[in-house]
Amino acid sequence: MSVFVIGEMASAHDGDIGKAKSLIDVAVKAGCNAVKVQFWSSADRLADRRRVPQKYRDIYKRYMIPVEWLWILRDYCGDRIEFMATCFLPEDVEVVSPHVNRFKVSAFEDNACDLLRESFDWADERQVIVSVNSDTLNEYLFSNIGAHDALLYCVTSYPAPLTSINLHSIMWIGVQFTKSNRTSPRLGFSDHTGHLYAGAFSVCSGAGIVEVHMKLDSTDPDNPDGGSFAHLPQALKKYVSNIREAESLLNVNAGRNPSSGEIAMMQYKVKT
Questions:
Q1: Angle between helix 17-30 and helix 233-249 axes, rounded to 10 deg
Q2: What top-level class would CATH report for the domain 4-268?
Q3: Where are the domains of the chain?
Q4: Which residues contact 16 (CB under 8 A, 6 or more apart)?
Q5: Residue pair 230/190 in contact by the 8 Å Cβ criterion
Q6: Do residues 70 and 39 make contact, with C-beta atoms less than 8 angstroms apart?
Q7: Which residues, including other chains, have CB under 8 Å from residue 181's CB and lie 6 or more apart?
Q8: Other beta carbons less than 10 A from residue 13's beta carbon
Q9: Is 3 strand, coil or helix?
Q10: Are 178 and 184 in contact (CB under 8 A)?
Q11: What whole-number distance in Å separates Cα of residue 267 and Cα of residue 105?
Q12: Three-class SS of residue 221?
């Protein structure tokens, strides 16, 4: 199964649906498997749940997308790329459900059991992807996530310094399920480093899903998702290419059998 790469636009659309469509085009050209938006129906309710200062409440109000964007952008994606959306409020899962093939929960909500419950209930047979810090596998999430779902290791700093990343945590998350005699969900990495090779390194550490932020050249410098952790179009293309190269080096389908080139050269092996 190839690595599933999600291009996260977050608030890089600047509230402009034209920019949102351009970001979809960027993700397609870069070779991403999916492109994702963030959706909340009430900035005040999200701010209250997170207990954030006023400046974040203002940010939520500025960058919240209208509900009609969900079907407009889904239709714009068409067959070119999968459309995804992160929900932040439990009542919004039902709203997003008709427009997505899988559900996403952020690391700031990985302990929000009401949101997780709604996501699992509405998902039915669809995949639920939850970003987590390595030390926050709460009991409800641990008990309810299925083998077909996914957990993405995430460091919630923007940008996340390389010294704060421990990619061994990806496998550590999986080990917690093995220790409990349970099949691990699919594992992945939600990347906020801005490093061109972080996604590729995470694949070498067991990630089967990589989420990465992207932005346009014209992104507002005051935009919270316009920082160095979000990749410009050409950088995103290189980022995805690095992941695909890592996949090739880890080609599990190759097995342990020697390649035709190796077989041809074996005649020159020294035998004593």
A1: 30
A2: alpha beta
A3: 4-268
A4: none
A5: no
A6: yes
A7: none
A8: 26
A9: coil
A10: yes
A11: 55
A12: coil
In angstroms, the CA 127 to CA 130 distance is 10
What residue type is assigned to position 82 of the chain? E
CB 202 within 8 A of CB 170: yes
> HSE (CB half, 13 Å, CA atoms) of 51?
1
Digit-by-digit pLDDT tens for the chain (272 residues) are: 799 999 999 999 999 999 999 999 999 999 999 999 999 999 999 999 999 999 999 999 999 999 999 999 999 999 999 999 999 999 999 999 999 999 999 999 988 999 999 999 999 999 999 999 866 678 888 999 999 999 999 998 788 889 889 899 999 999 988 888 888 999 999 999 999 999 999 999 999 999 999 999 865 667 777 778 899 999 999 999 999 999 999 875 555 667 777 778 777 788 77
Listed in sequence order, the residues at least 6 apart from 40 whose beta carbon sits closer than 8 Å to its beta carbon are 46, 60, 64, 87, 88, 89, 92
For residue 173 the two structure tokens come to 């998350």
Residues in the chain: 272
Structure tokens at 181: 């005699």
119, 128 contact by CB (below 8 A)? yes
